[in-house]
Write a structure and sequence with these properties.
Structural class: alpha+beta
Strand order of the largest sheet: 3-2-1-4-5
Number of strands: 11
Radius of gyration: 29 Å
Order of helices and strands: EEEHEHEHHHHHHHEEEHHHEEHHHEHH
Low-confidence stretches: 269-282
Number of helices: 17
């Protein structure tokens, strides 16, 4: 029988045999510890020990010293809820080589009992044979930044919910202000709501509080502000505005703290020399070219370089850095980062059939801001905007936005992987200049060859 093509597939970095390993099956109040080390008899057998350790700081630190004394080379912790954090953080601080693995990577085998002890032993056996893939856990400084950026996002969402509650309250009072004004967050709308709370009910007086172009809609405002806003509406509206103002204060404070933390982050991609935009244009995703030269203007930060990408604001850049860090050696290629972020379809192949699966669920904070950036970039007259318009015609809006978000993340990887790289837009006409021209050329050549001609292409000067 003829043998097909033989492919050599290199092992991943974590796929190696390890002599001394430990694994921790995590629960809320305790962890089940399993160590596997060579037996002292020299027979080649493995010695497995299992015991329980309380999930308290002192107990975990004692465990760390015990594992160091045993010469443990690798410790694996299963990511159960948030309970893994005390084990990971304290063992990492003690200098142990620790990895976090997703629970779905280490599911117990069918046919055996499901107990904490057997789970810990199974996890240790997988670890010593390199059969688990570690999850990405950023360093401590990036984790602290992530806490601030995630809380800012959560508070921003909560603030939006309070505005929605306020609009619902106005609808209950038969006030249709949101029909006339673009947003309740505008200064004019805020003044009118505060006047209603203060006791002013005359719609004509309220309409006079309009500012700018909104003053042209005076008659519409009078109609919209005519309702049945009473004292209980005023009391509830005052509470909602107080909550919104408090959230605004916290968000501003978080933003200032985030800027301070980003400025202190270590890493090769922290700053770059902005002089020049030399270098190649990059690939079809708009990957940046290097910025050569020395001297010139002061170096720019990673946030400023990411801010040059269409659709990305400084706040979005801060979130991206908080979620993936500055060290791109954690992701071997841009494709690894895109796969980790679940912005590409899974490959499902069986026999001669191959199809793409769903992208899957991933980091909601990273995916959320990339979706916002993709939506903004889709409206721009740039390469990313043109990419969206090409894809949306045949694949639909949602898939087009995911494709643009993927392209943005590829660009981010290149910018963070090279501290001297700057973003260079390929232009909205990139496809017409390159891809469309090449496609038409190939089509015409095939047609001429089908007619029996031999085609030699000579570019014009």
């Amino acid at each position: 029988m003829a043998m097909g093509e033989v492919r050599e597939i290199p092992d991943e970095g974590h796929e190696q045999l390890i002599e001394r390993v430990a694994a921790i099956d995590v629960a809320k109040a305790f962890g089940k510890i399993c160590t596997r080390v060579p037996a002292a008899t020299g027979t080649g057998r493995r010695l497995t020990r299992v015991w329980e350790v309380s999930a308290t700081a002192n107990a975990v630190l004692e465990l760390a010293d015990d594992l160091i004394g045993q010469g443990i080379e690798k410790v694996t912790v299963e990511s159960t809820g948030d309970y893994w954090r005390i084990w990971f953080y304290l063992l990492e601080a003690r200098g142990l080589n620790i990895q976090l693995v997703n629970a779905r990577e280490v599911k117990h085998l069918p046919g055996r009992p499901k107990t904490d002890t057997l789970d810990a032993v199974w996890l240790a056996k997988l670890t010593e044979k390199g059969l688990v893939r570690p999850s990405f856990v950023p360093p401590a400084q990036v984790r602290a930044l992530r806490d601030y950026t995630r809380l800012r996002i959560d508070l921003s969402h909560e603030r939006t919910r309070h505005w929605q509650r306020l609009e619902k309250l106005l609808e209950d009072a038969l006030i249709k202000l949101s029909v006339v004004v673009s947003k309740l967050t505008t200064a004019s709308a805020r003044d009118m709501i505060e006047a209603l709370i203060a006791g002013q009910r005359d719609p004509r007086v309220l309409a006079e509080l309009a500012q700018g172009r909104l003053r042209r809609k005076n008659e519409a405002l009078i109609e919209a502000l005519t309702g049945q806003f009473d004292d209980h509406h005023a009391e509830l509206a005052a509470m909602l505005l107080a909550q919104i103002d408090g959230l605004d204060t916290h968000i501003m404070r978080l933003t200032g703290r985030i800027e301070e933390l980003v400025a202190t982050l270590p890493g090769p991609a922290g700053t770059a020399n902005p002089a020049g935009d030399g270098g190649p244009d990059g690939g079809p995703d708009g990957a940046p070219g290097g910025s050569g030269g020395s001297g010139g203007p002061a170096p720019v930060t990673a946030v400023e370089r990411l801010d040059e990408i269409p659709g990305i604001s400084p706040q979005i850049a801060q979130v991206i850095i908080a979620e993936i860090g500055l060290d791109m050696t954690r992701f071997a290629t841009a494709a690894h980062l895109v796969s980790w972020a679940k912005l590409c379809p899974r490959t499902i192949q069986s026999g001669t059939r191959s199809r793409g699966g769903a992208t899957g669920k991933s980091n909601p904070y990273l995916k959320g801001v990339l979706g916002i950036a993709a939506t903004a970039a889709a409206k721009s007259d740039t390469f990313l905007g043109a990419r969206y318009r090409r894809i949306v015609k045949r694949r639909g809006k949602l898939k087009a936005l995911v494709a643009v978000a993927r392209s943005i993340l590829v660009i981010v990887w290149h910018l963070l992987a090279d501290s001297q790289a700057r973003y260079h837009d390929l232009g909205a006409d990139y496809h017409s200049r390159t891809l469309d021209r090449d496609r038409k050329t190939r089509s015409h050549v095939r047609q001429l060859q089908a007619l029996g001609f031999t085609v030699t292409l000579t570019p014009t000067a």
